[in-house]
Amino acid sequence: MRGLFLTLSLACLGCCCVIWARAAQERGQGDASITLFLSGQEQGQLKPCGCSGGQLGGLERRGAIFDQVSRSRRLVINTGSIVDAETEQNLIKFPVFLQAFSLLGYDVLHLTARDLQIERLTGALAGLDPSVSVITAEPVGESQASSFTRSFSLGGREVAIRVIAVNAQTTLSSLREASQVRVFILDSADEDLVHSVLEIATAEDCVVVPSELDDPKVFDFPAAQAQVLSVGRRGRHVGRLDIRPRVGGDGLELRFREIKVSQELINDPLLVDLYKSYQGIVRDSQLMDSVVRVPLPEGGRFAGSSRCQDCHEEVYAIWQDRGHAHAYGTLVKVGSDMDPECVVCHVVGMEFEEGFVSLEKTPQFPDVGCEVCHGPGADHVVSGGSIDLGQPRRSCLHCHKPEHSGEFAEHREEYREKIKHW
After folding, report:
1. Where are the domains of the chain?
2. For labeling, which of 86, 136, 273, 386 is most exposed (least CB within 10 Å)?
3. What's the predicted TM-score (pTM) here?
4. 375, 393 in Cβ contact below 8 A?
5. Rounded-to-integer distance, Cα 39 and Cα 35, Å
6. Is CATH 3.30.930.10 what the domain over 27-260 is classified as, yes or no?
7. 57-73: per-residue pLDDT in tens?
């Protein structure tokens, strides 16, 4: 009986050890695996909009993903394309992104040609933590390199990870010798460039290409040994590449999966404070005053929702109880009421000379009022309804784009019920 008890105890202990080992391997602890976290193509998206649910992204949530693996067993890499255009607001955002990468413990920052152009205007690299290595395929001098290498202990041997910036001018023949695992970061998805890299890449390499897709994707290239993937856009996901000894054979095994930066993840207080600082800079910069506004077509004019109440009293009363009638107030609550990128979808006609400018100058135009969807109505009101409403008449998708409202497209009728006033 005692022997049976001992046998069962040892069996249970063995099972527990296996379970523990698997859990440790999944977390990237010990030397069972190396984990590469890949992000990039933020397109200027510091934080997702808060409307219509299903929000993905936000710099303040990424740390909760990175912290799933100890710092000694991971590399955190940004693949570039931080902002999408050279605008006044993006020039403010760019240094904020670099501060965020420092706070989040990034190891490698890849800069594209556009990133370097923005950096020259902002000087943002001066504020980057020295522990973050900057790589670029552009010839910019001695301050940046074209690759980064770090070695790890893996399964009792040393494995070097080499992250390499590649563009059309890169001499690929110089990259053939190299480390155990190479991560090629391409500055374009040009097929000739991709195929050229795949000619020298092995099954223990990874090729990262930019993509127009918001979600990460592993691409199928026939006869390619290396994995070819994109990390998605707008910071909605983080790519996780786990590197482990190959089961039952020599060499290494690379496994890629995407992780949603979901709203359930814990926010990092330091990144929350950084975003608040950004909001303060936007407010102080008075970006609302520099919004480019154009005339309404055909000499149209807005009237303001209160003028619609005269003839549509019942409909107006229903609208007042719906979320659109309080859209501007939601921005005030979160401190984004001076951010033109946010305000434009929370007021009437901000992009037009006749529309919203500020609460002080145009108090009749905050919130998503009647004329956003039905068109400018000043002439309609003055004529007692004999003149039709003007243009433009916006559809829901004008503001509820995938990057703003993650679930809207798949639940359009459900959300229409939330604003139903007809």
Report:
1. 27-260, 295-418
2. 386
3. 0.88
4. yes
5. 13
6. no
7. 999 999 999 999 999 99
